[in-house]
């Protein structure tokens, strides 16, 4: 009997997304094996952090890299690094006077279109957010006029699903750099494509880019990867554990450090085209299957909800024919055993994701949906 069963916790088939509340992703066996191996020795944590960081920098074609406790923690640490720089005295002084930022740059500029539920992680560094533009667009002059001696950084949230009216990263970088202000990219869910590991920083000029370790990378759920400028990565390391500075709560174990390294190594060897084809096949099979159910309209959507270049299935539910709304279908799937997690696309539609499913689960999901609809259809 598994620990989950002993505790009475139901298994979830995840056809929703790489969500923290569902566990993020499933670590492949080589990641788990590497973590088990890492658990057997004590090491000097700083020595290990630096060695893993160097290796990750090489793998991701960046100047430097750092493993932190999730992408949200990465936003806090990256902001702290931009506030103080790598000077140990400045880092210690900030710790002593926090949350008073007197004498430090205390503002971070962000576009309204980039306000996401994770942005309190930026304010956790003690800074104020200065919002520019509106939900749909930002004019380049708005960025220009928001920058001042108080600006520690500009945070840019990457993703094809976000407002098109936000200026592209290259433009934001050009304006920010003209004022000597660094740009932090929140790219937490922007894998695939794997090339994004170097695109935002090396190719588009951002100073730091942050990725979740526990989303598509399938590393430890509680890790995040920060890549970019060596001096800022150094500042991040000095704020973070094991040092007793402001970043001390964001602890990463030696097992997690090794686990994320192995996950990134693996990710760079995956056949991503084959992965996309497999997702396309699953979506096509679902469409063929669901098209036979009266009152259900199945279509392919692209890119997915996180702006990744992966297809997903959207199911429109006609309540007069199906005897239930999309929301009720979503709830019924969640209440079963195992639970099946799908996304509520809007009040009429649910969406299903293929890339989060384990082998054989796509059929289980389809069968459960057919069964639920068969019993309610009139
Ligand atoms: C998932 C996500 C985060 C948080 O990442 P964690 O690794 O769970 O901390 C931050 N920003 C964006 C845009 C995300 O999608």
From TrEMBL:
- Name a Pfam family for this protein: SelA
SUPFAM superfamilies linked: PLP-dependent transferases
Species of origin reads Thermomicrobium roseum (strain ATCC 27502 / DSM 5159 / P-2)
Indicate the family of this protein. Belongs to the SelA family.
Q: What is this protein called?
A: Putative pyridoxal phosphate-dependent enzyme
**Location of N6-(pyridoxal phosphate)lysine modifications:** 215
Cofactor annotation: pyridoxal 5'-phosphate
Domain of life from the UniProt record? Bacteria
Q: Which GO terms fall under molecular function for this chain's record? A: L-seryl-tRNA(Sec) selenium transferase activity
Give UniProt keywords alphabetically: Pyridoxal phosphate
Q: Which InterPro entries match?
A: PyrdxlP-dep_Trfase, PyrdxlP-dep_Trfase_major, SelA-like
